[in-house]
Amino acid sequence: MYGMLLESVEHFLKEKYGEKIWHLIRQRTGIKNHVFVTHERYSDNLMLEIASAAVEVLGNETKMTSEDFIQFFGTCFVKFFSNYGYDRFIQISGRHFSDFLRGIDNLHEHMRFAYPKLMSPSFYCSEEASTGLLLHYKSKRRGFQRYVMGQIMEVASMFYNIVVEMQVLKSDSTESGCHVVYKLNFDNSAFKPPTPDALSIQHNRDLSCEAFFHIMPFSFLVTPDMKIYMAGKALSSMLGTILVGNRVDAVFTLRRPQREFSWENIKSWNVICELVGKHPCLKNHSSKKPPLRAVKSVGNEDHHKPRESNHILERRTILDETGHHNSFAALKSRRHSDHPLNGTLVTKFCGSDYSAKVSRPLHLRGQMKYLKKYDMVLFICSPMISSVEEMARTGMYISDLRMHNSSQEMVLSGIQPLPELEYARDQLLDRGKMLEESLEKLDQERQRSEELLYRMMPKAVADRLRDGQKAVQTCEHFDSVTIMFSYLDNFDNICASVSPMEVVTLVNKMFLTFDELSEKHDVYKFETLGDAQYMVVNGVPVRKDRHVEPVAAMALDILDSVRELRHPTSKRLLTVSIGIHLGPVAAGLVGEKMPQYCLFGDSVNMAARLRTTSLPMRIHISKSCHESLKEIGFKTEFRGQTELKGRGKMHTYWLIGRN
Q1: Model-level pTM?
Q2: Which of 134, 454, 521, 565 could bridge to 574 as Cys pair (CB 3.0-4.6 Å)?
């Protein structure tokens, strides 16, 4: 789907629930884009994922299901597309609501110009009455039937000021898509079924085929077996014998709508259709005069002269049983006879010098009209020609175009709206891609800067700075936190016995292991020092009731992980000593150019003294830490009175393990 649909979802979720809620929904959905690009294509599942995330974030508050949010998104889109001027198309799409419903496919086809890869669904109506109708919805997507309901009901309310009751009568889902039938109840008093009198006026006369195809010389008839049964003179002159009697899909490619070119489809279409010829047009010049040239060529003038030819034009007209020129009334019986009509207004080229020049394929635009009485489809169309140059390349003449539309006027005046608009559209798409690439690069740089910032200070503190707080405002007093120091024993001797690179490799390996453990136990790695000292703290800057337990568990895991570390040369096992203390601290950012998150207080010194008086592969803890741990299932052992620098003798303990 295109970004405009997701833009509408984002806009109204922000408007109704706020930026923070949208940020949470975006995080749960994994959306990296900060801005949806209008003409960029996104996954069809993205809107469904947003609805599911909205339920997780807002479910308790709104009591809405994901289906309810999908329907809400449908109403959002109708309100949102007025920002792009599409509300004007809805306002003029039909005098009555039922007219709008019958023309939805046509609106989608008009939008395909701005959104060339649009995979629009198909809508058609049946069983219309004064109280409503049945609306059929076919799509390659599944999961959007409530989205359609939101759109339809919002259009009825917003543009036609009527209330529509809508329910699903049938919903079929296959690998190729879905087919949903809605029952719409609304005031459809504009519906007037045709009366028998209006259908059986005796003096009505059938229009002859010759007269009709003279008025519409590029039109043709298609039978249920998809063969071209009859065609206008201009079309036959340009395509020759490949036209009548052949399958229409062998002669033309369906450009619009982008659906299967089948009999069942063309019977029900109520949209503008475009066909592009699969074969080049035949330039047959029955006159020795050259055709109208667009511009004077610089070079060989003979290039524009036609070859001499003795083409003979033969036109056979079929008469009906009464001897008059065949009419639409005779089509049905003629079609089922043993001699099918294959030449009514068809121009046949013959002669000894048939050397027609080839050119660009013909491009037709018009409407497929099903003639129920004759069980055929009439393609009423005219060629799409934007310039005199294109007429010359196609082998078409001004006389082939009719005056009842603007074809002649557009060609003669040189109006070329289509290429200019396509160029503008391509530029817009290119700019959208450039914007998306810039946003992706910006997002990558933002993530890198955030990761770097989170390494310098805790995430909670960094978020406060991002919200505009000053560094000094982050300073706080914490009544109770847990601090741990660990140290690689005999580190000085190790440095003296091995090369500097071996020292760096050893310390890096150890610290990477400790970093994984800090993430596992959700404790904050405060700092690492060059002499292989590692410090963590818990309860800062996010206050926690149980902050000692994760630190104690991490200390036990450190002892287990160090048993895999060996001396680079002697390969003997290495040891660490650990000290843990629980107490109050003050914490906050210090500095502005190079801010650093620091801890202040006697508790930091106490933890450091416990580490320096510890023993290899032992965890030395204070009395306050011991009292907290014994209540939550950890084993401790009284060490005795230990002399701590600056504190005197104090009761300390060993952390042994868990109960």
Answers
A1: 0.49
A2: 565
